[in-house]
Specification:
Elements: H1 4-10, H2 12-20, H3 34-37, H4 40-45, E1 48-53, H5 55-72, E2 76-80, H6 81-84, E3 95-101, H7 107-118, E4 122-127, H8 133-137, E5 140-143, H9 156-176, H10 181-202, H11 205-214, E6 220-225, H12 229-244, E7 247-252, E8 269-274, H13 280-292, E9 296-302, H14 306-309, E10 314-318, H15 326-344
Parallel strand pairs: 1-2, 1-3, 3-4, 4-5, 6-7, 6-8, 8-9, 9-10
Helix pairs in contact: 2-9, 2-10, 5-9, 5-12, 10-15, 11-15, 12-15
């Protein structure tokens, strides 16, 4: 591999297997996170969950919000640690605060953890680096077990965080009885297939590399998604910004007509994350709106989706999966797209300018 980032993108099937190992049984009938089971009473009595994080971890937190609200029926709020710690937030002693950080040393998240603990909340850490500050300062937690990440732009740490949040949501939903047993097992069985499905997306690397060469000229990108795909749009845009230095924005697809649609012309590439979901027809109409204004659409679609394929300028097909697990697949082509655009522009992919792997200062 020419760069650590590409190596880490390709290691994701393996890191996700490590992440599930010892937690999700091979039959796909049960998932156990000891960090939750050991504090079962706290979790069952929780009236609200607050997720605090920065950057890519914040995007993982948004997916966590959708998962926990969907399966556990507990209200969730996702906050930027840097805002949370300075705005005198309302925190109850019945709240559970989930702090997400790859390094476990993020200064703002660490300060937000202290604030939450002083207010009497139960704090749960989701970190990668064993023995780092956040795991030492929280009541309980889960490690992502994805190994050291060298590239500054986070790839496998992100998918591992999403995987842990998925397992948190399913463990908690099962304990609360808020999910039907057959649905619970269906999702777990599908979760076991995710690493192999990622392998099949990685096989499209050359195709995505060709696609990247077409869009190297672009000065701006818009990423659109709905539902579970919206945080993926934010993450895809962040990856492109970080390593290629191209301005990119992620938006909920329906918000486009509240402003961003004014930006669309034949010079503006739009990445639409349009994998199969309950509101698929809505994103189809968003793509039609873009095409009517001469926008250039790169669509991430589910295999066999002929409707969007006939409209979009370029399509990247990903395997079918459950809607709640789609972020684990749809983020992969976006990581590769950002990587190849940055390489074509001759950027330092592993050490982008002005960025640090772990933000330990304010």
């Amino acid at each position: 591999f020419p760069h650590f980032m590409l190596k880490e993108i390709f290691e994701q099937p393996e890191t996700l297997k490590n992440c599930m190992s010892g937690r999700l049984n091979q039959e796909g009938t049960h998932v156990i996170l000891s960090g939750i089971i050991d504090h079962k009473k706290k979790f069952l009595e929780a009236k609200r969950i607050l997720i605090i994080a920065c950057g890519t971890s914040w995007h993982a937190g948004l997916i966590g919000e959708y998962l926990i609200e969907e399966f556990c029926r507990i209200p969730v709020e996702v906050e930027y640690s840097s805002e949370f710690r300075y705005r005198n937030p309302v925190i109850y002693d019945t709240d559970i605060v989930i702090a997400i950080s790859q390094s476990g040393e993020t200064a703002d998240t660490l300060a937000a953890v202290e604030l939450a603990r002083k207010a009497g909340a139960f704090v749960y850490g989701v970190c990668n680096v064993v023995g780092s500050s956040i795991p030492r300062n929280t009541d309980s937690g889960s490690y992502t077990h994805c190994g050291p990440e060298i590239g500054v732009a986070s790839t496998r740490a992100f998918t591992a965080q999403v995987m842990v949040l998925t397992m948190i949501a399913l463990t908690l939903a099962n304990q609360r009885g808020s999910i039907k047993q057959d649905e619970y097992e269906d999702i777990l069985k599908e979760l076991l297939l995710i690493p192999d499905k990622i392998e099949s997306i990685l096989a499209l690397n050359e195709e995505i590399k060709q696609l990247a060469s077409i869009f190297t000229y672009a000065h701006n990108f818009i990423y659109l998604g709905r539902g579970f795909s919206y945080p993926v749009a934010l993450e895809g845009a962040l990856k492109l910004k970080e390593i290629s230095y191209i301005h990119a924005e992620g938006y909920p697809a329906a918000e486009m007509k509240h402003g961003p649609i004014a930006l669309i012309d034949n010079e503006m590439p739009i990445v639409a994350i349009a994998s199969e979901n309950a509101i698929h027809d809505k994103i189809v109409s968003n793509i039609q709106e873009i095409k009517a204004r001469k926008g250039r659409v790169i669509a991430i679609i589910t295999e066999g989706d002929t409707e969007i394929k006939s409209m979009a300028d370029h399509c990247i097909e990903i395997p079918q999966t459950k809607e709640c697990l789609s972020p684990l697949l749809s983020c992969i082509p976006l990581q590769l797209l950002a990587y190849h655009i940055a390489v074509t522009k001759n950027r330092d992919v592993d050490m982008p300018r002005n960025l640090a792997k772990s933000v330990t200062v304010e």
